[in-house]
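FW: tagging you since you asked about this chain on Friday. Here's the raw sequence from the shared folder, copied in full. Didn't touch anything.
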Amino acid sequence: MSANVADRTKSWIQKRPTVCGGDACIRDTRIPVWSVVRANQLGVSADDLRTHFVTPLTAADVQAAMNYYVAHGDEIDNEIRLNEEA
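HL: got it, structure written out here
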């Protein structure tokens, strides 16, 4: 991943303690990265992910979530596990 893409992904994904328990979320939404990744793992296509959530996502939102997963897979896999156990 180039530095430019890494910088954009970092700013696109936000972790705020008061939003979704501090989970990594897509910019200015309450949509956690783990939920986008898990939906994709369950067969929701990248195109369908854009309308899968109450707040519509852009193609760049979905790509940023997937890029974050590539860079932080253990974190997101753990969040998926914790949410599926709840």
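FW: The CA atoms of residues 15 and 21 lie 9 Å apart.
HL: agreed, and The mean pLDDT is 88.
FW: great, closing this out.
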